[in-house]
Design goal:
ten-stranded mixed beta sheet, 436 residues, Peroxisomal Thiolase, Chain A, domain 1, 36% helix, 15 helices
């Protein structure tokens, strides 16, 4: 009997026929102009408007999102209904931290591969500027006592138990970016792996500058054709990713102080992913749907893999998720034409590259016979990444797959891998090929 571990995760053809995303908008200290579902509609409506079928002909809608708003419970269903899919099209939501958008694609692909669906709209959303601010435990208990008090003496007694410290809020975004098991923020885990592979401050800042310059060049040359303009209720237009700093230099970044290890660290706001709002949606189809609606094909999902590793080393997740894909598809690093490794931190991406080059790591952690090798930096994140355009947690996994397909098309290349590290000590990776 064949070893099931060696079988591809997508056994039947699953095609990506189209996709769109919003501009990624940097959070600027207050709630941004768009709630999460509004971002999804901003790219979902034009995407569906150009299809030869109606939204109610979709089999399902799958959305990745980590921090939906209070009126967005099961945001996948809310989005589907507001998109015009009608009551009969199911919508559901998945969460896998930073890879939630990729998990949505993977879930949709498996339903198509199993014959459960022919047309699925899938992607990711996050409005990080709208992340909830919560009452702490003592304040919740106080409000509970107050609500239960029926008589005036009971209410006065409840009021007397109030203490000013109860007003200290819980910042949902900060809690969400901290691993509750190991007690480390994502930035602290980036410091861990940078130290492990000897990646210094200059290397991190140099990578960050390169990310900004690549994004600035892509904008200037109009290569980010997947972006749909969106408009707020005041008539303001948002046309492109607004976190880019085209004038970024290593000298400027060197002036920033470390954030996560103030005494010895090297990870700063300048070489980390930006807190951002954004959405990305892709349309997946079966062979039967391609023929029925005469759909064009951007690419095909060939394989995907999810991996777990030590949470304190979570930034190395792409190494652990991608290596099995390469092994079972008998591919070397050089066989991949273009790469998208999500830039949670500059040092994290550099650590992944270093891990594949490190023989001891590959033998001990990946069970390989030797080092896997090097990735050509000219084929990695060619139009920038999370450091320059931001990392809306639920959306990034879908964005990097969508953009990778555009890069393959623009360069007439065949094969690409999109991969992310995932808070909690995981990695996700997806192998795609251009065309049918």
């Amino acid at each position: 009997m064949d070893n099931p571990v060696e079988k591809k995760s997508i056994p039947e053809p699953v095609y990506i026929v189209d996709g769109s995303r919003t501009p990624f908008l940097k959070a600027r200290g207050k709630p941004g102009p768009f709630a999460a579902v509004d971002l999804a509609l901003g790219c979902g409506r034009p995407l569906m408007a150009r299809q030869p079928f109606n939204a109610d002909q979709l089999d399902e809608v799958v959305v990745g999102c980590m921090m939906p708003g209070p009126d967005e419970a099961n945001i996948g269903r809310v989005f589907a209904l507001r998109l015009g899919c009608g009551k009969k099209v199911p919508g559901w939501t998945v969460q896998r931290n930073c890879a939630s958008g990729m998990q949505a694609l993977d879930s949709a692909a498996k339903d198509i591969a199993l014959g459960r669906a022919n047309l699925v709209l899938a992607g990711g959303i996050e409005s990080m500027s709208h992340a909830p601010v919560l009452y702490n435990h003592d304040m919740v208990a106080f409000l509970g006592r107050l609500s239960m008090a029926k008589t005036l003496p009971d209410r006065l007694k409840a009021f007397a138990s109030f203490k000013p410290r109860m007003l200290k809020p819980i910042i949902g975004l900060l809690r969400g970016l901290t691993d509750p098991v190991v007690g480390l923020s994502m930035g602290q885990t980036a410091e861990n792996i940078a130290h492990r592979f000897g990646i210094d401050r200059h290397a991190m800042d140099s990578y960050a500058v390169e990310s900004h310059l690549r994004l600035a060049a892509a904008q200037k040359e109009n290569r980010l054709t997947e972006i749909e303009a969106i408009y707020d209720n005041k008539g303001h237009a948002y046309l492109e990713d607004d976190g880019v700093r085209a004038d970024s230099t290593v000298e400027k970044l060197a002036k920033l102080r470390p954030v996560f290890d103030r005494q010895f660290g090297n990870v700063t706001a300048g070489n980390s992913a930006q807190i951002t709002d954004g959405a990305a949606m892709l349309l997946l189809a079966s062979e039967a749907a391609i023929k029925e609606f005469k759909l064009p094909v951007m690419g095909r999902i060939i394989d995907s893999h999810w991996a777990g590793l030590e949470p304190a080393q979570m930034g190395l997740g792409p190494v652990h998720a991608t290596t099995p894909i390469l092994t079972r598809n008998e591919l070397a690093l050089d066989d991949i034409d273009y790469w998208e490794i999500n830039e949670a931190f500059a040092g994290q991406v550099l650590a992944c590259l270093a891990a594949w080059e490190d023989e001891d790591y590959c033998k001990a952690e990946l069970e390989l016979d030797k080092a896997l090798g090097s990735i050509d930096r000219a084929r990695l994140n060619v139009d920038g990444g999370g450091v320059s355009l931001g990392h809306p947690v639920g959306a990034s996994g879908a964005r990097i797959v969508l953009h990778l397909l555009h890069v393959l098309e623009q360069n007439k290349a065949k094969r690409g891998i999109a991969t992310l590290c995932i808070g909690g000590g995981q990695g996700g990776s997806m192998l795609v090929e251009r065309g049918k």
